[in-house]
Amino acid sequence: MRFEIPAIPAAMIRRLNEHGYQAYVVGGCVRDALLKREPHDWDICTNAKPEEVIACFPDKNVAKTGLQHGTVMVIDAGEGYEITTFRTDGAYSDHRHPDEVIFVSELREDLARRDFTINAMAYHPDEGIMDFYGGQQDLANGVLRCVGVPEERFQEDGLRILRALRFAARFDFPIEEETGKAMHKCAYLLEHIAAERIFAELKGFLVGKGVGKLLIEYRDIFAQILPPLGKMFDFEQHNPHHCYDVWRHTATAVDHIAPELPLRLTMLFHDCGKPDTISMDENGVGHFHRHGARSVELTEQMLTQLRCDNKLRDQVLLQVKYHDLPLPQTASEGRKFMNKMGEEGALFSLEVHRADYMGQAPDRRPEKLAHYEQAKAVLNQLIEEEACFSLKDLAVKGRDLIDQGFRPGPPLGQILNRLLEAVLDGTCPNEQAALLSLAKEWENS
Q1: Residues 6+ apart with CB under 8 A from 70
Q2: pLDDT at residue 422 tops 70
Q3: What is the SS3 assignment for 387?
Q4: Residue 414 burial class via C-beta count within 10 angstroms: exposed 0-12, middle 13-18, buried 19 and up
Q5: Fold (topology level) of 7-141
Q6: Separation CA 181–CA 73 (nearest Å)
Q7: In 77-200, beta strands by DSSP E
Q8: In 3D, which of 278, 254, 431 has the Cα closest to residue 359?
Q9: Tens digits of per-residue pLDDT, 291-306?
Q10: Which one, of 12, 83, 82, lies nearest residue 47 by Cα?
Q11: Which of 152, 157, 120, 155 is nearest to 135 (CA)?
Q12: Distance in angstroms (rounded) separating the CA atoms of residues 103 and 429
């Protein structure tokens, strides 16, 4: 199969060829081109040594930051293109980085060190695809398989375990049996991986396809990187609203929400506090009072461990905290809901509730989904009307009250909050005259 390489990397390959060297685009760009996806990067491999690559591009800016791994970056038209010498890797004493790299002259040897067959292909405009390990066949069959012996690939770099899950979710590919077995066997290697790298792979995984089935099949791996999740496995809920244990409910809920990171993280963590909060009544029914608060505690611990940025962390924590807050069914309830959650957070919460319902007992879903539809209609109507649900939307400000003779200070703030409550309750319209009249009434009472 042939495909077109963009002009700049194609010219770099020609330049290297003209100087007597082999050169190919390699890795993810070949895979994506075969899948008819737009590649993000066009990486090049060559038998030229780094100093020989540099000598081939005297007219270009060259960054030498990857020299220890045989990589230089050639800058052209403001874009950087990595050109790496064919190599094999030495021992991986830290299960993450090779202790040394050895330059080799054969492309086959270079491709043998790569992680998965679909990433171990190279391409030349004249020679076509160079595929020694069955990458094209695995792409055609839609399967993710390690190059060579899977356990060896994971022993070299434990992060490849999470990369396998990310690729499986990204392309919706099943993981080949021996590769999957090795992932379970080598899960302990993730102890050696930096939190930032783990989170980067987890984020990519969560926004993929078929995430729920992978969460179930590879649950031991997720417990390895986030131990509090392990308590959810096989934890029966003993409640008529639920037909799954806590982890299967979670995996189902993740699958039923849009593939956006804050949404998927919320569903992953929303019930993690349940195992710590269960109580059984006299009828043998399980209850989880205050499990939202416990879930927030555990979620914050895990997001902190993952070095999550503050904005995303706070967004997820808010949703986890209120994931079982009753959805509004009236305009008054809707205004109070948006006061608590904010407009964006309220719409976010709608989808969290819907996904939660989809992971519950089928006979309870119709009623709950009807509540969801009613809440959606209520909130959309309030947004369309630009309804007041916070102090900034209130038709009266502190200055207006001062102009009417009210004294500045804390009591003024209390009056503004009472006025907002009256608007949220629907007992007073959000109109300046009506609000000032109500404030005067309170002052004189």
Answers
A1: 49, 50, 84, 85, 87, 101, 103
A2: yes
A3: coil
A4: exposed
A5: Beta Polymerase; domain 2 (3.30.460)
A6: 37
A7: 79-85, 87-89, 101-103, 122-124, 128-130
A8: 254
A9: 999 999 999 999 999 9
A10: 83
A11: 120
A12: 76
